[in-house]
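Can anyone check this?
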Amino acid sequence: MKKPKSKTPPPESPSVKSFLPAAIILMLLGWGGLIAIIIYIEPHGGARWAFFFTGVLAFTGTALPAMAYLNQRFPSSPPASSGIIVRQSIWIGIYLPTLIWLGFGGVFEPFLALLLGVGLLLIETFLRLRERAQWKPEARTDRKSQ
């Protein structure tokens, strides 16, 4: 007799709620640090690096729930894991402070912003393609006991 195959639900991306504690901590540290740096510190080399670091924290924390929502709303195959969602948030967290940094130096150009954005998008696309191309054997549940 054949055993009925157990149907497991397809895997999903993690929920937005699971990212909220990390997002709140990152936003508090990032935005709080940015406000403190802007108000209390004179702009020089170290302060610019602190601005960049806290900017990455702030924008990563802000992007984290948005990326979790977008990955749930537009599912992919395979579904995005929590590591992928964090990585996508970090891309945004690096991209936006980099544009602000370029503006401080007076070298910001819209074409450069577009070029950097397309470059980061291509890197993420290639990483997702690599994850999709990896062969993962499915667990067989219909083996006969010996």
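Reply from J.R.: I decoded it. DSSP finds four helices and no strands in the chain.
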